[in-house]
Write a structure and sequence with these properties.
By secondary structure, this protein is mainly alpha-helical. About 85% of the residues lie in helices and about 0% in strands. Helix 2 packs antiparallel against helix 3, helix 2 crosses helix 5 and helix 2 runs parallel beside helix 6. The longest helix is centred in the N-terminal third of the chain and has 28 residues.
Length: about 140
Amino acid sequence: MNLVTLKRTVCLVLLTAFMNGSLSAETPLTPETYVTIDLSAQAVTVEGIYQRLVRLQENPYDDEDQLRVGQMVQNEVGLIFDEYGVTKTEFLKYGAAHESEINQWLQENPSTAREYDALKQRRTTLSNQIRAIKE
């Protein structure tokens, strides 16, 4: 899945949820919404790392292209926060203040915890490949 497809998918899911009334204009953060936002942001980030790797393999000296991909990823992550009506700062504060509740929720939802693990593993693999090309 490329970055554009992922963006469209995330937007459609969020739009559908909003239209069905399951998201309000002021969605309070809960452990579940925190995890949903975090997984979405991490998925976009990992896809961006993949795009950087592909482009780096094609043209290892195009630093401007690498910066463009990074900016696209930041914009996409910003859209995710916007869709849920939270700022990055609010999100980070909630995560720090409610870490134990979030961890408890993840223990109660092991399939979601596995999604985190899979994203972490993919991110590490892709980052190592990028590092190897740059060395």
